[in-house]
Amino acid sequence: MTEHWVYVVECSDGTFYTGYTTDVTRRVAEHDAGDGAKYTRGRTPVTLCYTERFDSKSAAMSREYEIKQLRRAEKERLID
To answer: Is it the case that residue 62 has pLDDT exceeding 90?
Structure first.
């Protein structure tokens, strides 16, 4: 059974990026190598701040959307 993850990384400029993956370690390495999302390419290195595991892709994608809608202060509370 595949695990599905939602993650939040903090970019070098202090901003947050939220994404979905099936392999958090690989995905964070891709962001650091400049091969990740367009948003993170100029903001490396990134630091993994938060992860949440799901059994289905649809649940993970829904949660990713929810987190992306949060304001910065709300994301900071989630991470803490």
So the answer is: yes
Report CA-CA distances (Å) from 63 to 14, 27, 52: 22, 18, 9
CATH of 4-79, one of 3.30.420.10, 2.40.50.140, 3.90.1150.10, 3.40.1440.10: 3.40.1440.10
Say what the pLDDT of residue 36 is: 87
Specify the pLDDT at position 1: 81
Side chain identity, residue 28? V
> Distance between CA 19 and CA 2 in Å, rounded?
17
Query: Three-state SS for 36?
Result: coil
Tokens 């290195």: give the residue.
45
